[in-house]
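FAQ: What does the model actually see?

It sees only this:
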Amino acid sequence: MEVKRDILWRVYLSFLGIVVLSLLVLGRAFYIQQAEGEHWRSMSDSLHQRFIELDAQRGTIYSDDGQMLSASIPTFDIYIDFNADGLREKKGRRFYEQVDSFALALAGYFGDKTTAQYKTELKAAYKKNTRYYPLKKKLSFEQYKAFREFPLARLGRNKSGIIVETNSKRLPPFGLLASRTIGLSREHIASDGKVRKQNVGLERSYDSVLSGKSGQKLVRYIAGGTAIPIEGSETDPENGKDIYTTLDVQIQDITETALLRMMQQCEGPYGTAIVMETATGKIKAMANLGRRPDGSYWEDDNYALRNTEPGSTIKLVTLLSVLEKGTSRPDDLVEVGTAGRLQVGNKIVTDAERQPKPVLTVKECFAHSSNIGMSKLAYKAFAQKPAELKEYMQRFHLDTKVPVDLANVPRPTMAPLNQKGSAEGNMLWMSFGYGIQVSPLHTLMLYNAIANNGRMMKPYLVSSIQQNGVMYKQFEPTVISENICKPDVINVARKSMEMVVTEGTGRRAFDKLPFAVAGKTGTAHVSDGPIKYGDGVYQATFVGYFPAERPQYTCIVVVRTKPHAASHFGGTLAAPVFREIATKLYAMYVNKKDPSLIAAKKDSSAFYYAGYTPDIKNVYNTLRVKYADSCLNNNWATVYAANYQPVVKVSTVNKKVMPNVRGMGLKDALYLLENMGVKVTVTGKGKIAAQSIAPGTALVKGTTVLLELS
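And it is asked to produce this:
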């Protein structure tokens, strides 16, 4: 019994010890999980490190004259490491001394929260030992510069715990101007959780050139999956290359303004206008305006590349084909009748307007845009073999994608011309613009070839690629076809297009124009997707070149009308836009006066200077000199002489781009530039005569400009 009792006593004692030990282990585990869990999870996460990509700075897109069309502007994300030694030492004395004034500064500058809200949130994050507290996202350089002067923030990273990450966003300095052609570059989170690029226009076509090569940095993950960068582990990215386009800002502005005026007047769903340099194929302007629900217009799609039935502008193909084949001659007579309706082959063809006489020459059929006349010419040439018309379409490169340097260019479509029973009818419809779909740019390329004496040029938008100011690749004009037709056929086509303006469908639109224009009107009844012919929607077009005798620019204007619009003809909607564009370009670029031919005397009363508006006005008021004031309450102004009187004109200052400081005194220039974060170096004496960074250039952190005084 004694032995048994002794054994049981030991067993019970051991069991009790195991129970106590188990309770201690469970209690300790519970304590670690609940009380110390965040600390140990943080320690675990701190051992988890990996490399992440650093995006390269995207290259800049420039206009032909070096003005920025799309640039990357730096933005700043602000975080706070509340576990930083500088905030934790002496029981957080520095934090508690600074938090009130820091919250006050944040509320006063950003105005999105009250001081009390900022203070409460900052203290809560401090108590939780938050390692990567997101304070502000996407601050501009101006905002970041102001933030650095806030209490706590000005103490530096070690004492304040403030972490700054620099990113960039894409900014088009000219806003609407050619925005769809230039395109956009932005990122979004796809359905698979990965970051995808959503680029259009040149931003998409040249994405690999603009993007550069990514770098990398090592980050350490802390509690909550937040990544903290480890200093000294970065591999610098290789910035993207810059693209110089063929676009001219002034021509683009003229084109877009003229088109916008007509779109607002007719309230159509969309319109497009393109200006091409005749000899080279350079696209100098490409405007695309779509109507938004609120009635305003924006560059929402590239309508210049959208395939549609072109209407009467395709009659140029018919004219060239029948003359080239030799079945008709320029002065052959064609009976079109007086009823505006006639059977041609197996189809009834109608003219939109009654013709001036029942019998027209071949050139007059084109000039007066007679569907009956052009279909008769096509029937005479291709009735036996309709597919032969397609061969001419191929010869004029209307069956392939227009070879412009943009992505997602659609391929033209045309009705079949080799199917028995429908081939003849399709051929007749195609002869005056139906049964075939091409883009406005395609049509422009063909008409430009006529303006260029038969030489067809490849249209292009990018003239060069540069890296850090050094030429990387140069693009030269490219000839697609040296002669699309015989020279005498080209001459007839040019004379026929001149007749359109002098006596045909474009006569009223170009009446009393001081220089000669050649071109063709087009009015197409639209059947496109959900829109049917019965909806009464039209597409008005005018395409041509100027000056007619020595073409310098070729231009096309296309306006889609609203249903049952009272005015829907190419001569009344598109031609006036063409006229406005041509008139302004002729005055600015074609009919330029040679300064050497004019021996003008230097005007000793002429002057120009710039500066702080209140100071300028104070000087004039003190001296009692009268001046014309068009500056109102703007801070900066320029002054010049007009009719022997000073004119004070506003000088626009955008904090994100380099201002024009020429004509200023050094004091004003230094004040303006240094407040924008620009470093300044100076040579010479007097007023500022030149600046090393052109006005309008986007500013980046640490920019230095050289000012030359004379």
